[in-house]
Structure formats: structure tokens, C-alpha cells
Amino acid sequence: MFNFDDINLDRIVVHNVGNKHHEETLKLSKQGIQLEDDDVRDILLKYFLSAFNKEEFYNFQHEAGLSMNEVYCFATEFFEDNDSFYDQSVNIAMHLYDKSNHPNIKGGEFYLVAFSGCIVDGEVCDALGIFKSENKDTFLKVYQNQENFELGCESGINIKKLDKGCLIFNTEKENGYKVCIVDKTNKNGEAIYWKEDFLNLKLREDDFYHTQNYLEMCKGFIGEVYNDENEVAKADQIDLMNKSINFFKDKKEFNEDLFKREVIEQPEVMNAFDEYKSYYQSEHDNDINSEFNINKDAVKGEQRFFKQVLKLDKNFHVYIHGQRKFLEKGYDAARDMSFYKLFFREEN
Fold it and tell me: Per-residue DSSP letters for 21-63?
């Protein structure tokens, strides 16, 4: 968990990074910006930091070793020598420009920011912030001209919409630092350059990671094994999804034996689940922990992928939130159609 209540913005430099694929240029400032207006400083702090609102940490990585990860090395040089701040801003901007070679990547302002007074998991540390603004909004201006009011417009950056961000906390250097990221413009998957090509990050193996990992595996089990092909009714699939996510929402600590008893219940399904877990670990080359503290941010993030809608032809969508026992499936021979019975006490 991080706390920015007492954070200070110590230094900032702005460059402009274009799209290399479209032969746009890299425009470098000659020096950093001297911030003397406290209101501007407060606005920048809000713009840079308010989007970091969940406990999802990453570490820098590289298949040939951390010393080959460019941003990790530039950050390390800054943390060891704060006077190299401007030089590292140029190095990181050039590296970002080199990775901005996908046709859909937008050019924009690049900011390197030095922070102090961050609190991360109870530890006070410095941080290096890397941010990029890619989208502009149009703002309406109302101004007075003698005895009349006039209207105009300007293009600018919406301080409530940070496009891309990265916070590198000066802690756990040997593991690739503690890192948080924001990527609001990567909705179609083509701009993975921010997390993978530019930063080269992996999820930090903490409670967030273990919670997300287990829920991803549960989702895979339902989609690949506990499914139509194995003659599992759609309502039963949704029921298992509901029970899985509710278990994680209700409990503070995860225990796999308890999960299987309360959620999976049936011995034959348990065996299939254990087999799938072994397959999943081998296929994804990671270990699924059997006990860990449940991270609620991870549960909230994964919950949207657990679909609770039973679609019946094009006529009905049934949202199932409760117990499976209040839903019965049958077949009407006269109509040659299937049907569901829903049992309830109140109608709203």
C-alpha cells in the first residue's frame, strides 16, 4: 500500500516524444522546469498521482539479467546520483522514442519527475515518476471584454486523465524495484509497448499477484474444463463462478482445502480441478500458491471477468447472483424447447 499525503515534487523535466514509425521527432528540452507556483505544483501532483489507486506492484525484469533492462539502469543511476536527473530524463526519453514504433502509438509530452516522501508499505522512500500525455481535450473559455463576455476555446491536458504513468520506488532494488504503472490508452492491446517493450515489467509476487493468479486459474478451469463440452449446464458454470468470486470477497485469507470444500464440493470435480491446476502451472510456468492473504483490489479487478449472465436465444438474459438451487432446467416436449424455472419470494 502506498501513501502520498506527504509527498514532495522535487524536480521535473518535460520532453516531447513522437512516433518513430511515422518519422515524428524527439524534441528534448535544454533543462528542467523550475516550479515556483505552489498551485501548479499541487495540480501536477494530482495529475500524476491520483490514477495510482490499487495495490498492484511490478518488478523490472530482463531475460539476460536486470543489468540489461534500460529503465532499471537509468533509475538506478539517478537514485545513486541525484545530480544525473536531467541526463536520465534524456536517456529514458530516447529509449521511449526507440520503442514508439507501432503505427497506433500517439506522440505526446514526456515527463520525468523526482519525488520524495513517498510511503510504501510503511517505508519512506524516494521515487522516480515517468509519465506521458497522449490526448488533448478542448476547454471552453469565458472571458470579459469591456462590458461583454466572450467565448473561446483552447486545447490542453485534462488533469483528471493521465494517459500513461510509472512510479519507480527506491526499494527492493535487488528484485527490480517496486513499480506501479498506469496505462489508460491501452484498450485494444496494440500499445503493450509501455509495460512490455519500454519498461519490461513482471508482476511482483505478493498477495495481489497470488490472488489474481488463483482467480485466473479458476476462470480457466471453468472455461476449459467445467464447460458445455463436458456436459456442464451453463447455470452450473455460472454458479461455480459466483461461488468462487464470493469466497474471495468474503474471506481475508485463502486456504485451498477450504476453498475446495466450500466451493467445488463434488469429489469428481475436485479431481478435475487438481488436474487442471497442475496443467495450468506447467503451461504458464508459475506456481499457484495454496495459502495467501486475499487482496481485495485484485478480487475487484478480476470480478468483471466472471460473467454471471445466462443468455437464452435472443429473447432473454438471466443475471444469476444467488444460489443455484433456486433455478431449475426442464424440457417441454410439446414445444420442443428447454425452459428454466426461477424460484423467488419477492418481486421488485
Answer: TTT--EE--SS------HHHHHHHHHHHHTT--S---EEE--T
